[in-house]
TrEMBL record:
<dbReference type="InterPro" id="IPR033659">
    <property type="entry name" value="Ferrochelatase_N"/>
</dbReference>
<comment type="pathway">
    <text>Porphyrin-containing compound metabolism; protoheme biosynthesis; protoheme from protoporphyrin-IX: step 1/1.</text>
</comment>
<comment type="similarity">
    <text>Belongs to the ferrochelatase family.</text>
</comment>
<feature type="binding site">
    <location>
        <position position="291"/>
    </location>
    <ligand>
        <name>Fe(2+)</name>
    </ligand>
</feature>
<dbReference type="InterPro" id="IPR019772">
    <property type="entry name" value="Ferrochelatase_AS"/>
</dbReference>
<dbReference type="Pfam" id="PF00762">
    <property type="entry name" value="Ferrochelatase"/>
</dbReference>
<feature type="binding site">
    <location>
        <position position="210"/>
    </location>
    <ligand>
        <name>Fe(2+)</name>
    </ligand>
</feature>
<keyword id="KW-0963">Cytoplasm</keyword>
<keyword id="KW-0408">Iron</keyword>
<protein>
    <recommendedName>
        <fullName>Ferrochelatase</fullName>
        <ecNumber>4.98.1.1</ecNumber>
    </recommendedName>
</protein>
<dbReference type="GO" id="GO:0046872">
    <property type="term" value="F:metal ion binding"/>
</dbReference>
<dbReference type="GO" id="GO:0005737">
    <property type="term" value="C:cytoplasm"/>
</dbReference>
<keyword id="KW-0350">Heme biosynthesis</keyword>
<comment type="function">
    <text>Catalyzes the ferrous insertion into protoporphyrin IX.</text>
</comment>
<dbReference type="GO" id="GO:0006783">
    <property type="term" value="P:heme biosynthetic process"/>
</dbReference>
<keyword id="KW-0456">Lyase</keyword>
<keyword id="KW-0627">Porphyrin biosynthesis</keyword>
């Protein structure tokens, strides 16, 4: 075994706090070969498709990778921008903004690196960037508000796998989820209110989350429960009556049963049933991407309107809204509290005490407002 040596770690220069931001990732270009390469890596991940390896390899390479890349490439071409894939362009803006916000909060240096689970920039390149910056402590932040083994679990696998090659490991922390974080709920509620100020209030508000196969949920994945809680907390914050808001799951793939109700079926049914106006948001995505721009803002809009609906609008993801970035920076700072010497004078003892109090208060509020989810 040959290990990556870590001469970049230096004792004679100040240590730096590393923040590894990660998200799903995207093809390098919307061409069919690049989309095929991306899908081959993504769909071979056993956290994503749990089927036995040999039959799945035959299906993946014999059927899916012969047909799906062309269809997906067309969809990617329809959302591609001058800055490339929306998911990556937004993730880069988030990383740059967080670098600025965190540099103000932490004493010494802090380095934010972006590494995608699939494709580029890779997790391996982001970890190398942090190593070169002398980041001997690394906080990993998967930008998925709700935990699922297929996303957050998979990011953990990729990081652990990369580190099997390192001689000197960094000290690691890992943010698992933030589905009920008050700042996240507030930012979602504010984004909805902003949308209402421009477009008016709809008859129905639909919270559409990416789906997972039902079997993963039955085997203990907490994702479904965390989605329910996020939507309920936002609806409570907006004081929405129960008949005004709904939750559904989008983006299913293959023939097996996924979490229900399905977003596309729901919107078609609503259009046919005479529901006139609908607004849809996808709070499970921290950045707009193929699944929101093409699927929710385009494809599902037509399903609703063609079925008889009159007014449809999509409420964008939190992306680089200032309240979203502040909330992410705050969460990072709170997780960095256990590394107090890294927190600067602006966040000294008083600030630490305030954050601890706040964290305690949030825990207590949770226990009284809900039993579990
Ligand atoms: C086949 C299984 C899939 C599971 C399980 C799954 C879970 C899951 N995915 C996201 C977030 C995103 N998925 C995106 C695209 C996408 N997802 C799947 C399949 C599964 N996802 C595929 C095949 C694709 C590629 C596009 C396509 O061919 O349809 C994206 C967008 C990426 C982009 O480049 O814009 C995101 C983001 C979550 C949160 C999740 C489970 C909770
Ligand atoms: Fe997905
Ligand atoms: Fe999709």
């Amino acid at each position: 075994m040959t290990f990556v040596n870590t001469p970049d770690y230096r004792h004679d220069t100040p240590e730096c706090l590393g923040i590894l931001l990660t998200n799903l990732g995207t093809p390098d270009t919307p061409s069919v070969p690049d989309v095929r390469r991306y899908l081959a890596e993504f769909l071979w991940d056993p956290r994503v498709v749990e089927m036995a390896r040999l039959p799945w390899w035959l299906i993946l390479h014999g059927v899916i990778l012969r047909t799906r890349p062309a269809r997906s490439a067309k969809a990617y071409q329809s959302v591609w921008t001058a800055d490339g894939s929306p998911l990556l362009a937004i993730a880069r803006r988030q990383a740059t903004a967080l670098q600025g916000l965190l540099s103000d909060r932490f004493q010494g240096s802090v380095k934010v690196a972006l590494g995608m689970r699939y494709g580029n920039p890779s997790i391996s390149s982001a970890l190398a960037e942090l190593r070169q910056a002398n980041a001997r402590r690394v906080l990993v932040f998967p930008l998925y508000p709700q935990y699922s083994g297929s996303t957050v679990g998979s990011a953990f696998d990729a990081i652990a796998h990369e580190l099997t090659r390192w001689r000197w490991l960094p000290e690691l922390r890992f943010i698992n989820q933030y589905h009920d974080e008050p700042g996240y709920i507030d930012a979602l509620a504010a984004s909805i209110r902003d949308h209402w100020a421009a477009h008016g209030e709809p008859e129905r508000l639909l919270f559409s989350f990416h789906g997972i196969p039902v079997e993963y949920f039955e085997q203990g994945d907490p994702y479904h429960c965390q989605c329910q809680k996020t939507a309920r907390l936002v609806a409570e914050r907006l004081e929405l009556a129960p008949e005004r808001w709904f939750l559904s799951f989008q983006s299913r793939l293959g023939k097996q049963e996924w979490l229900k109700p399905y977003t596309d079926v729901t919107l078609k049914d609503w259009g046919a049933a005479g529901v006139k106006s609908v607004q849809v948001l996808s709070p499970g995505f921290s950045a707009d991407c193929l699944e929101t721009i093409e699927e929710i803002d385009e494809e599902n809009r037509h399903l609703f309107l063609d079925a008889g609906g009159r007014d449809y609008s999509y409420i964008p993801c939190l992306n680089d809204r200032p309240d979203h970035l502040e909330m992410l920076a705050d969460l990072i700072a709170r997780h960095g509290c256990g590394w107090p010497e890294l927190i600067g004078p602006a966040a000294g003892a008083d600030e630490l005490a305030r954050r601890v109090e706040r964290a305690r208060g949030m825990g207590a509020a949770d226990q009284t407002s809900t039993s579990g989810f």
